Amino acid sequence: MGEKPLIEIRDIIKNYKDGEATVEVLKGSSFTVNKGEIIAVLGPSGSGKTTLLNILGGIDCPDEGEVIFDGNLLSWDYKSLVEYRKNNVGFVFQQYALVSDLSVYQNVEIVRRLVSSPITTESMLESVGMLHKRKSMPWQLSGGEQQRVALARALIKKPALLLCDEPTGALDASSGAKIMSLISDLARKIKQTAIIVTHDIAVCRIADRIFRLEDGILTEQAK
């Protein structure tokens, strides 16, 4: 379990305009995530899970409410958010988001250089079982293999916070189970704080705590 709070959201409200209508995506959501915890946020498509993750990751801003990261109130100005994302957050997306004209090695190496990570690209690829495919291009890989590379790219930053947006959403059941097992094993090994949003209840098996997001309301669920 976690040691002390890494990130906390307080009374987050987020609305979007849909023509003349206002869509309430998050209606005063609050929660605290401790260091070293794996948190699953479960909810149907369109429930606001990705919006929540984007706010936690500094990609989107709330209309109201606060995000406290490692004891400090997150500032929503552009420069602060760029630094926050660069120094603290690793993302894993449903559709992998690999650079199509870069090899497996290059997709991870470019991030290692950006953040001057002490971890070697070779060791990171080995940890996700993809070192033997380091010269391959993304289009030569299966979905599960691409997601392994995406995970390596996120973790080579040594992020304080790993955010996974439907990491099994584009995978078959077998590949999805392997990816979640890998995320769990790596996170437990390095005491990685991770928040995973998903519609797949099977993903919740690796979580320390589970939250449900539905109709803009975030509530903690019993495991």
Concise account of the structure shown:
The chain is 31% helix and 30% strand. With 223 residues, it is an alpha/beta fold.
* Helix and strand run: EEEHEEHEHHHEHEEE
Number of DSSP strand runs: 10
Give the mean pLDDT.
92
Cα distance, first to last residue? 14 Å
Give the count of helical stretches: 6
Biggest beta-sheet profile: 6 strands, mixed
Radius of gyration: 17 Å
Helical proportion, percent range: 25-40%
Name of the CATH homologous superfamily of the domain at 5-97 and 161-221:
P-loop containing nucleotide triphosphate hydrolases
Shape: globular
User: Class by helix and strand content?
Assistant: alpha/beta
User: The CATH topology of the domain at 5-97 and 161-221 is what?
Assistant: Rossmann fold
Task: Supply the CATH class of the domain at 5-97 and 161-221.
Answer: Alpha Beta
Widest sheet, order of strands: 6-7-8-3-9-10
Q: Under the CATH scheme, which architecture of the domain at 5-97 and 161-221 would be assigned?
A: 3-Layer(aba) Sandwich
Q: Beta-strand percentage? A: 25-35%
